[in-house]
Amino acid sequence: MSQRIVQVDAFADRPFAGNPAAVCILDGPAEETWMQQIAAEMNLSETAFLYPDGDGYQLRWFTPAVEVELCGHATLASAHVLWEEGHLQPDQQARFFTKSGLLTANRAGDLIKMNFPAQPVAPCDSPPELLGALGVKAVFVGKSQFDYLVEVDSEEAVRNCRPDFISLGQLSRGTIITSRAAGGKYDFVSRFFAPAVGINEDPVTGAAHCQLGPYWSTKMKKRDLVAYQASARGGEVHIRVEGDRVILGGTAVTVMHCKLV
């Protein structure tokens, strides 16, 4: 089956930054095994598969190892490709039917703004292995439906974290480490580790900000935040918390077109 694939750097304003995602626009449904094989071949944190359905698109996301229920950067990449290649007009909303319900994206100047479900984080007791695997002291430990969230006392601690990925991979789908930003334009910084699904460190994680946004919004008493995910590639995420929804904003850049033969 011949298939065109577009590689996009999401949450980036230039190539080779942010988080790369592959986008496959299909004519219709595809076999799950085939999609997983393509995702493994692309070997990116996520590959998105979408096809037209009514007034929107069915959308699924796969890491090299598993399908996931929610992915921000590959949704951003998908919307970017739909507009860039003329599948949608510039003023049309991108509508995606997913395992996490209806997700939408709109263009707002240079940003693409996505409407995602908030993922509340509740305080919890830290498993003995968690902080040892991160090598940090925690200000707060919590857990959402999917991931642990660990707040530490400084941006330096976030940036210098060197996790034990084998241990982390046995605890949950993923682990977020975060702190207030040291200063400048950002409110907070974070990193995201998900060895359990085949991604030791995700460069920029939209889904993690569905947890981080509400957490820091409550803590900082503000609805609008600007965050930086401090991976090696790095990326900026604009956030607005609206009740049980989180609006995530970012930019995207196409870096590659290829064809599966």
Describe the structure.
The protein is of the alpha+beta class and 261 residues long. The protein folds into two domains: 3-115 and 249-260, Diaminopimelate Epimerase, Chain A, domain 1; 122-243, Diaminopimelate Epimerase, Chain A, domain 1 (Roll), CATH 3.10.310.10. 21% of the residues lie in helices and 42% in strands. The chain contains six helices and 18 strands. The chain has helices at 32-42, 72-84, 128-134, 155-160, 165-168, 206-220; strands at 3-10, 19-25, 46-53, 56-62, 67-68, 94-98, 101-108, 111-117, 122-123, 140-143, 147-151, 174-180, 188-194, 199-202, 224-229, 235-242, 245-250, 252-260. It has an 18-stranded mixed β-sheet that branches. A hairpin with a 4-residue loop joins strand 4 and strand 5.
Please outline what is shown here.
It is built from six helices and 18 strands. It is an alpha+beta fold and 261 residues long.
Find the count of extended strands (DSSP E, 2+ residues). 18
List low-confidence stretches: none
Order of helices and strands: EEHEEEHEEEEHEEHHEEEHEEEE
| N-C termini distance | 7 Å
Report the structural category: alpha+beta
Strand content range: 35-45%
Question: What structural keywords apply?
Answer:
single chain; 261 residues; alpha+beta; Diaminopimelate Epimerase, Chain A, domain 1; 18-stranded mixed sheet; 6 helices
Protein topology:
Elements (H helix, E strand, L loop, with lengths): L2 E8 L8 E7 L6 H11 L3 E8 L2 E7 L4 E2 L3 H13 L9 E5 L2 E8 L2 E7 L4 E2 L4 H7 L5 E4 L3 E5 L3 H6 L4 H4 L5 E7 L7 E7 L4 E4 L3 H15 L3 E6 L5 E8 L2 E6 L1 E9 L1
Parallel strand pairs: 2-3, 4-6, 11-12, 13-15
Antiparallel strand pairs: 1-2, 1-18, 3-4, 4-5, 6-7, 7-8, 8-17, 9-10, 10-11, 12-13, 13-14, 15-16, 16-17
